Every structure is written in C-alpha cells, then in structure tokens.
Amino acid sequence: MYWWIGLITVSLVGPMALGILFELRPSPAGISRRRLKGLLGVNLLTFVVAEIGLLLGAVQTAMAAPPATVEGAHEVSVGLGLALIGAGIPTALATIGAGIAVGPVGAAALAVIADKPETFGRSLIYLGLAEGIAIYGLVVTILMLGRIG
Q: How many structural domains comprise the chain?
C-alpha cells in the first residue's frame, strides 16, 4: 500500500517541480505545448488510478482486520451522524460566504490604500467585517453541538 502513496506523492510533486522549472526558465527548448498537455494528462490519470488503488487497498485491509472489541465504546447511530453533519454545515457555508466576501473587499481595500494610504484603518475594518461571517457560522455550529451532546 505504501507504493500507492509514493505514486501519489510523485504525481503531486512532479507538476510542482515542472512549475518551478518553468518559472526559472520560461521557454525550455524542445518541449511543445501539446507534449506538456499530454504529460499533464498522464500525470492526472496516474494520480486518479493511485487514489483508487489506495482506496481499494484500504477497504480491503479494513475488511480483513478482526473486529475491535473495546469496552466502553458505543456505536454512532445514523441519527447522531446526520446531526453532526448538520452541525458542521453552518461553518462550511459561512466560510464559503466569507471567502466570497473577502475577495472583492480585499481587492477594493488594496486599491483604495494605494491611492490614499490614510484609509488603511477603515479598509481593515471592512475586511474584518467580511471575515466575521465565518465566525458567526462557527458560533452557530458550537451552539448546535451543545444541543446534540
């Protein structure tokens, strides 16, 4: 199973190394765009096959293991599992919303600061307000987890 992990690592490190090479030397001789697209496709296919192989190997290992008998351990019911997933949804959606809000606000804040540096404090407050959306989602999740437990 470790060689699947090695294959995934190579398929992740390869494009990073190629990107660094292209950053240092923008137009390497003898490599066409068509060949690079083919190499990237082979790399993506290798990554997907390695992920599937690792998943199947892990499932096979888990199914072959004897059942664990731990005293004091309890099963998680379907209802509790769904409740825990439902408690995590507010944080996920609020974080996505904060990311969508911080992008334009941050870009506008940088543009204003470039023109008038004295507006730094005010633009930082606006950026903090946009980031506060994620904190509201986290608070809601914490309140929901308190009701579940």
A: 2
